[in-house]
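Changelog-adjacent note: as of this version, every example in the card shows the full chain rather than a window. The one below runs 55 residues end to end.
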Amino acid sequence: MMANNYLDGPLEGVNRKIKQIKCTAYGYRNWSHFYTRIRIEFMIRIKKKINSKMN
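Full-length structure tokens:
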């Protein structure tokens, strides 16, 4: 068995968030709208983390 320093928790969080977006939207007609929604969701999270570190 190999040992590493990686945790799968953050990746599981990303997968859960994408599934939640899919469920809430009940399907997008256009793939680009779905992709844009995912990017918006994660950009908001990144900006919140950066702002909280600066304060």
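Structural remarks: The mean pLDDT is 78.
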